[in-house]
Every structure is written in structure tokens, then in C-alpha cells.
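chain below, 727 aa
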Amino acid sequence: MTQTLYIQMFSIHGLLRGQNLELGYDADTGGQIKYVVELCRTLAKHPMVGKVDLFTRLISDKAFSSDYEKEVEQVSDRFRIVRIQCGGRKYIRKELLWPHLDEFVDKTIKFIQQEKDVPHIVHGHYPDAGYVAMELSQFFGVPFVYTGHSLGRSKKARLLGEGMSEREMERMLKINHRIDTEETILKYTDLVITSTTQEIEGQYGQYRNRTLSTYRVIPPGIGIDKFYPHTHDTFESVEDKEEALFAKSSLKQELNRFFQHPDKPMILALCRPDKRKNIEGLVRSFGKDTELQAMANLAVFAGIRKDISDMEDNEREVLTRMLLLMDKYNLYGKMAIPKKHDFEHEVPELYRIAASLNGVFINPALTEPFGLTLLEAQACGLPIVATRDGGPQDIMANCSGGILIDPKDDTAIAQALKKIIVDRDLWNQYSKNGIINTRKHYTWESHAATYMDTINRLYEDNEKSSLAVRTPKHSIGHRLSSLDHMIITDIDNTLLGGEPADVRKLVRLLDTHRDRIGFGVATGRNLDSAVAVLKKHKIPDPDIIISDVGIQINYGKDLHHDKGWETHISKGWKPEPMRQRLEDIPFITPQKDANQAPYKLSYYMEPGKDRLPKIHHVLTKNRFLYTLIYSHERYLDILPFRASKGKAIRYLSYKWEIPLHHFMVCGDSGNDEEMIKGDPKAVIVGNYSCELSHLRPGRTIYFANAPYAAGILEGLSHYDFIETAQR
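prediction:
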């Protein structure tokens, strides 16, 4: 490729910042956080990359560092972390983020508009961010890359095996929604990046849409500048050396508080307090084997904690069981359970301390998609004992730095640990293998090189590449990003209804200036009806269709659905109670079901004194939030409080960074009134209905003499709209 790429990465949940990662704080702040930060940091150094932005959720919460409320964090010259607010500003766990993802999409689009820079690639990590990247990919017509990190079907099967009911899973984890989202992602992604072949076969293989995706195994790397062997020191500066010495001293002091004999070999475990990590099995195997206790100490760094009683149920249960087992087997003086650790500086020293004591690192997880800590430990020269599930199989095949075990076999765990600790020649061989082979197979530089080679292929001709881009080259997102003026018109009795020659003249004029001026319609018709009538009259596909009096927004020829608008208007909408309260009003008649929509109640009503006030009275006394629109002296529509043609236009102005005074809106009836009032330049065509007669001409309201499309043309001339747009 001749150009450098702008890559947008998405990792939404958890605590994410450029330095001093709080890994293990909770279940959402684990290996994925480190993975995406290191990946972005390394990609930003690649010559084919111009810029990398990592999008995550903005958190402004007194319980957390102020780092997480910085809207933009400049990590390096070409790498930024961009924080988008959604679902409020407080920290919430990932399972509660699902309803707010469309808000994240909208605000990311707004950010892209502000930056005037559309990405070349979007890459989502985990299904929440995968959903966001998928929506942006379809909107801007750019390739969509996905990394799952863990998968819902595997998690569901495991939890069912542990006795959790599907109902409980759905209540706590929204597991079925997650799985449905993953299926959709697999349908639309251009490339799935995995860490192991087992991930493709054993995990993605469970999905219906598994064959619709292209997969590439690219193992993650480690920062070998930090995870260097215990036998020598490598410092870039005096400050780094002082930091490392301080970290080592602090750790030894902390460990010595627990150990009666601190010079024994140390068995080290480092993981989140999650049932899958099998901390209970490790402590039990150590507690039952007095011979192992005699020859080694056990140190379990199970995340970061302040007060166990304040933690989530899963984490609290895991830590409580760990403490109970420690007490049951009387492991005081033999087992350390520190409450916190600094990942940036202390964890590398922790591996080296264990290696200098001829210890062993253990990952006894019941299921392990990859196992990054296994690489870190081996890079420091610390032999490993690891579960034979998932990623560790590939790691062991490449590195030969330890022993794989059945994590459910307590005896096997203890035997493997003793074998390495007792046999010094074996320990040395595993240590040497780990140091050499992690540098051979698992560096971030090699990961980034393979990643960029794969991404490059996404741009090759479809016939030459199996990784063909499925998204269009000319997307509605690119078009809307290039516009700064927009004409929105009603269809019936405004755009249509007059002389066909006037419509043709208007269409030619808009086509001539389409590079600067967008074209949209706002109608009371439903979407299908609007599309049909426009095609019948040979009106080109609008850039925007606002339909059903403002409850739905669609874009372009493909009618891309604006889900963010739907999420926005749904707040406080209670259609069934409203319908019940309105049943007793004799002068309104429900329209046929075919005319109803999820966010609209539609009735027929003839004009009459005090009829509208009575409807308002019924709805307000029951404290409903609503918008009421009466048009053509017949049609009564009740919408969500946040919905209407006018509010939809204000939403579009916000989302696409087009100032309201750069909109020209055209209408003829009561359901156009709200979009006519305010900052947009409004044109009321000459054939307007009496519902608009109370409005008065002004700076932003023009009453055309000509009717229908001729009135729109007259309005364009009145405002010098085209000339203004070309300046």
C-alpha cells in the first residue's frame, strides 16, 4: 500500500488507560485491556500506520482515577485513547452496557465528523465493541475486523455444567443477547483474528455463522523490554533501574509478611478472582500435599481488592473460598495472598523474584482462551505449569517451557509442581526454553507485522484475495461526512402534488450541487410507503428518510437504520397504558394496524372544539411523556416525547455536525410545524393547510407564493441557499 492507515480500535468495558493498568480490578479489567493497549502502542510504530485511536467508555466516578474521564489521552505520537460517554458517567459492568451501545455509535460518528477523518479500518474487541465497530463499518464502508477474546456459547455451556440456570444467566449476564450479537458479527465481519487454532475449531465452531467469516491466527505478544530474564538487568535509564529496584524491594517486603521461610522456591499464581481461573483447585492441591508445602511457598495474586464484602458476587465467592481453604489446610506462613499489585512495574519483578528462587508459575484455569501470563513468566525465565485447555497448548508447543496438566486433577497439579522444583536440570532447561522461544514466537513487533500484512490484503482486489472486503466503497457515512448543507422536505403536498416539470427541475438542481448539499425527506408515511412513492415519481434515493412523522431515520440507498435515534426516543415511551387511557375518548378512531408502528399511536379525528385539549388532559394527568401531532384536519399521531420531524432534524444536526441554520426544511401541514420552527431555514409552500396559518413570516420562516415543488424552488432562491452552500 502507498498510503498510511488510520485504524480505529474499540474496547469499551473495564478500566482502560495508557499507563499503570489496573489489571485484576474486576472481571472486566483483565488480559483484554493489556492486549489492546500493547497492540495499539506497537501498531502506532509501524511504517504503514498513520494513526491509531483506541475508543473506550468515559468514566467520571469518584471511586476511580480521574484518568478515565479524559476525553482524549495522547499515549504516543500516533496513538490516542478516545473516551466516549454512554450510559451515564458512572462505572458499570459490561453486561449492563448493551442498551447504551447505539449511543456510543452515535457519539463516535460525531467524533469522526469533528475530526474530519474517516478510518480505513475498524477493529472491535469483545462483542460489545464488535457491535459498535460493525455498525460503523456498515455506515462508512470500511473493513471490519473482530477479536472475540472469549465467546458466549462456550461460557454458557460451562455455566450450565456448573449448575447455573439459563434464566439466571440471562438475568445476570444477558448471555443470549451476547450470543445473538456474536452470530451477527460473524455474518458481517471481514476478518476474525484469534490467538490459537483451538479458538477457531473449538469455540467459533459452535456458531451457526462460523463459515461466513475468514479467520487468521495471530498470537499476541509480550513486551520483552519489561519481561527480561531474571539472570540480568536491562534498563533504558537510571529512573527505570530505580523503579525496578524499588518494586522488587516492595514486593519482597510484602511477601515476607506472609512467609515463614521466604527463601523457599515460590509457586506463583497471577489471575483475576474468577471461578474459571480455578484458584480453589490450586489452593486445595497445595493444601492436601504436605510434601509440596515442605519444599515451596504459594503466592496467589488474585486481582486488586480493598474489601471483599464490597465486590461482585462471583469475585467475593472466589476470594472467600480461597481464604476458607487457607484456613482449612492451615497454610499460614506458607501462602501469600497480597491485596494489590502494580502491573506496570511490580508484575515483571514478581516473575523474576519467583525465578530467582527457582520457583514455578502456574495457570490452573478450567478454560483459558490464550494465557498471556504464561508468556510473561517464561520470558523472565520462570518455568510454567498450565492447564491443557485452549491456548496453553499452542504456547507449550512453541516454547516448551513447562508442563500441561488437567486442571481438575489436584494430584496432577501437585505432581507437576514438585517435578519441576525438585529436578534442577529440568528447571534450567524449561527456563532456557522459555526465554529463547518467547522471543522467537511472541513479540508485539512480530504480531504487528503479521497484523498489517493481513490488513493490507483486505484492500486487494476481491479476485486476488480470500479476505475480500464486504462493505461498499462509496458509503452513506462517507457522503454525509462530506456535507455541510441539507434540504429536508415533506413528500405529500410539498415535494409531490404539483407540476412534474417543477419536480424534475428541483431534482436536476439538487443533483448539480450534490457535492455540498444533501437531500432528505421527512414524512408521515411509513418507510416502505415513502420509498414506494419516491420510486413511482422517479425521485433519486434520498440521503436521509425521516418516516412515520419522525420516529424512524434511515440513510441512503441501502436504507441503513439509525438505531441510535430509536434508542434515544424509546426513553419513557409507554404505548399500551396510553392506548388503554384513550379507549374511552369517543371522537378518535384507531387507524388500521398496518399504519401502526412501535413508537407511534395513530388515530383518525375530525376537527372539533376542545378536542385536542381533552386528549392532552387525559395524557398529562396520567403523567405520560409524549408528542402529539394533528395534521390535515384528520390524522392524529401520538409519538414518544423525544420524537418528531423537528427533533429528528436536531438529532441529525448533532450527529453529523451540520449546523441547524445549514438545513432548509419544507412543509405544508401540522406534522411539519415543529421542524419549521427554530433555527433551520423554513419554507412553507403556497398550498399549505390552515394548521400553519398561525405562523408568521420571519428570518427563518418563508411563505412561498408558489405551491408544491415550485414553492421549494422559490424558497431556495429566497434564502440564496445554493449560493451560500457553495461558499
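Residues 476-570+642-726 form a domain with the Rossmann fold fold (CATH 3.40.50.1000). The chain has four domains: 5-217, 238-441, 476-570+642-726, 572-641.
thats it, cya
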